[in-house]
Amino acid sequence: MKTQTSTPKFSLSYFIASRISNAKKGSAFSALITNIAMGSIALGLATMIVSFMIFEGFQSEIREKIFSFTAHIQLTKFDASDSYQSAPISVERPFLKTLKAIPEIAHIQSFSQKPALLKTDIEIMGVLLKGISYDFDTVRFAKNIIAGSNITFNDSVSSNDLIISQKFAEKLQLKVNDTIIAYFFQEPPRFRKMNIKGIYETGLEDFDDKIGLVDNKLIQKLNNWNDTLTGGFEIFVKDFSTLSTGTSDKVLDILDYDMAMDTVTSQYGHLFDWFEMLNRNVIVFLAVILVVACFNVMSVLLILIMERTNMIGSLKAFGATNKLIKRIFFYHGLRIVLKGMGLGNGIALLLGFLQYRFKIIPLDPVNYYMNTVPIAWDWLTIIGLNLFLLVIIGLVLWIPMTIISRITPIKAIRFD
Length: 416
What we know:
18% strand; two-stranded antiparallel sheet; 2 domains; elongated; alpha+beta
């Protein structure tokens, strides 16, 4: 004897929902509000994705500019005086070997600092010279160079190459391969004839307005240091997110008593505070968009339920349960949401690609630290936004369906 299998509730409810969605007949009003709901979801999701791509792009661009000049952690010799002049530290200190053994650390480089005056026939400007060496991360810094090249290092003698910012070059009317006299504050006063090797631009006043790059051997020579002395060490970590969650504490624990540690988030706190402010604004903005999208979906589903009151009454008369009917309208609403989300993803990715490829929207670098709106392709964030929106709206879809339980078959069939 053959057993008769019953159609699963999921298949039946999904089948009816598909027929409702694909039905050509229906009121023009319901079709209009359905399209409006799809459009609001598409516009909301596209706005969310584009906002996060731009926000992540801003953070990534500015962080890279900061990290091209200074590392995540900076180690110097403790000095009570508030001076730009570096105090000497030996590169042979034992704690350096221990630092290199920390798995979270990616790279360590030496540096020194020395203030100077740059003088031409038309202008005099103060500059903070940062001495760099072979271990300097030139790959990060190369993105900032707009003319010339990096310093040429020599094992035996110090280089007189100098890299200055575009602001310095404009005010001092200098170009690559020009020469300039640098005067150093010390006893006795000293000066050097420097060669403009390169010109950089970051858009960040913290660097462009005061920092120039020179050979670390030059500062060692001016300070009468031997080759084993330097002004400090800069440490890059493998994952920036771990800086405040343990890596900085590990470094601090192994430092000598006369060492001082400073993190990039404290040195340039105003920039990272700006990130936090932008993050809060983006969250508030996205919350408003999400509320509007949810309200539109609820309104559309409620109208669709009211329009299908006769059908609901008929289904109940034939024995359909409230749970089955709710599933029908849930799947119907979910189809609208998914279509809107598909359209929203397409719009967002298209806009992102156009801006990323063609740099359509410019920015004022004085206010925004860059020339064009940046785009970051964080696929995990994009997928996360889609899942978040789908879950929230999926939960909201059940709210207007509570009215289905109150519909009685007799009144519903006679409803007009």
